[in-house]
């Protein structure tokens, strides 16, 4: 008697990319600035932040939410949700996934977002009204707009998505964990997931909360404020924005004629405790090894590493050692890049932006440089100065959070797509 056939694994692929970042809105604008190594870090200009110790950040300045979002949604949402909703629209357009594709099966499409701070600007405004004018002046949306899950809820309601929806409330590595969550939903039967993260941490209340982070850069020179892997490293620079992706089950995507941009091949995560950078070496290495194992990928197959690049000497050293531990001798030869040094770290949005950049890098055969970084003091081949042409089939994206999360994601370029 023949044993029953093992069901084929449902593979998850990226078919759409939507970006709202300090260096551009839309994947095209984002990639142009990223590949050219343009740094947009500048002095903080947000109202109410002028006299706070944080001097440099990555602000999203050329973004008009009215161009993307209906008024009825705008009034009930915070800036971080505006970014997420706009990025979701851009990703859906890029994937050419419209209502006609899922209207008859809305339960086949889900939404997952990650968030580390929530709607601080909206919450601050409503609390000021409460204490300054009284409870009658507090709007009804105060109960939901600040909440971590607001972006997931609004994207699903607005789009009519009724499949599995979730929010990963975490520190920075949560952006990669959200992608893993989407992949697992697809393995369990969902056809598509709108997934990603966007943050808006530059309101006064939010900035004051961040001032408790010892690793925050308080440097007032934009070109020197965020220089990971160098002797000048003095902390990280925060940023707004993020990215949303359309992730689909591969067979379903191909059947509808979608462009397969990359495969989510493997992911793993660990936890080593808040600001325990020495311990993060082992935790990050373990995450890399787990992601490689899930992807059935040998260390020497990794063509580029998009680094976490915390900008803290102990953290940078731990990351360099973790790459060497997990990838062996190849870890000292593989090109490493950190485009976020030109935009800042958008918390949960940062690794999703790195994932977007990695997909675009594989498509263009070009490793973007690490802005503002020149003399590297670690045993890493960090790409600096200008973009480096390379044949890229497999990329590794790394992320760590201030609270101790570590995550690694392996992306693979489709074999039927020419470089």
* Overall body shape: globular
Order of helices and strands: EEHEEHHHEHHHEHEHEHEHEHEHEEEEE
Q: Between the first and last Cα atoms, what is the distance in angstroms? A: 45 Å
Residue-averaged pLDDT: 94
Sheet of most strands: 12 strands, mixed
Structural class: alpha/beta
Strand content: 15-25%
Runs with pLDDT <50, length 5+? none
Tally of contiguous helical segments: 13
Count of DSSP E strands? Answer: 16
Helix content estimate: 25-40%
What Rg is obtained from the alpha carbons, in whole angstroms? 20 Å
Tags for this entry?
globular; two-stranded antiparallel ribbon; 419 residues
Describe this structure in words.
This protein has 419 residues and is an alpha/beta fold. Helices cover 33% and strands 20% of the residues. It is built from 13 helices and 16 strands. The strands form 3 sheets. Strands 1, 2, 5, 6, 7, 8, 9, 10, 11, 13, 15 and 16 form a 12-stranded mixed β-sheet that branches. A two-stranded antiparallel sheet has the order 3-4. Strands 12-14 form a two-stranded antiparallel sheet. Helix 1 crosses helix 13, helix 8 crosses helix 13 and helix 11 packs parallel to helix 12. The protein is globular and about 65 Å long. It starts with 11 loop residues before the first strand and ends in a 7-residue tail after the last strand. 57% of the residues are buried. The model has no long low-confidence stretch (mean pLDDT 94).
């Amino acid at each position: 008697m023949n044993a029953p056939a093992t069901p084929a694994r449902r593979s998850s692929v990226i078919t759409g990319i939507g970006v709202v970042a300090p260096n551009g809105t839309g994947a095209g604008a984002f990639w142009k600035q990223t590949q050219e190594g343009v740094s947009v870090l500048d002095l903080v200009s947000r109202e109410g932040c002028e006299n706070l110790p944080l001097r440099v950040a990555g602000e999203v300045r050329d973004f008009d939410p009215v161009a993307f979002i209906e008024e009825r949604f705008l009034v009930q949402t915070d800036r971080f949700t505006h970014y997420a909703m706009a990025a979701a629209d851009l990703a859906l357009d890029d994937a050419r996934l419209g209502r006609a594709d899922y209207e008859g099966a809305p339960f086949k499409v889900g939404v997952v977002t990650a968030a580390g701070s929530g709607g601080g600007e909206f919450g601050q405004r409503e609390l000021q009204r409460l204490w300054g004018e009284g409870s009658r002046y507090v709007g009804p949306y105060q109960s939901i707009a600040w909440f971590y899950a607001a972006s997931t809820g609004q994207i699903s309601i607005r789009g009519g998505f009724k499949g599995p929806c979730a929010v990963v409330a975490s520190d920075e590595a949560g952006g990669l964990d959200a992608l893993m969550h989407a992949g697992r939903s697809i393995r369990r039967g969902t056809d598509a997931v709108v997934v990603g993260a966007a943050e808006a941490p530059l309101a006064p209340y939010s900035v004051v909360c961040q001032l408790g982070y010892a690793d925050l850069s308080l440097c007032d020179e934009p070109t020197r404020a965020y220089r990971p892997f160098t002797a000048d490293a003095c902390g990280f620079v925060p940023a707004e924005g993020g990215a949303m992706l359309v992730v689909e089950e591969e067979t379903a995507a191909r059947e509808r004629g979608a462009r397969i941009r990359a495969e989510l091949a493997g992911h793993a995560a660990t936890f080593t405790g808040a600001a325990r950078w020495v311990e993060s070496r082992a935790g990050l290495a373990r995450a890399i090894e787990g992601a490689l194992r899930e992807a059935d990928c040998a260390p020497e197959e990794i063509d580029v590493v998009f680094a976490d690049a915390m900008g803290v000497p102990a953290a940078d050293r731990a990351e360099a050692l973790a790459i060497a531990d997990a990838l062996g001798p190849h870890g000292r030869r593989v090109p490493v890049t950190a485009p976020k040094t030109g935009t800042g770290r958008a918390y949960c949005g940062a690794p999703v932006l790195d994932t977007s950049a990695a997909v675009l890098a594989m498509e263009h055969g070009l490793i973007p440089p690490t802005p503002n970084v020149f003399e590297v003091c670690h045993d890493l081949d960090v790409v600096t100065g200008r973009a480096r042409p390379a044949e890229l089939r497999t990329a590794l994206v790394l992320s760590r959070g201030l609270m101790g999360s570590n995550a690694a994601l392996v992306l693979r370029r489709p074999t039927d797509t020419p470089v």
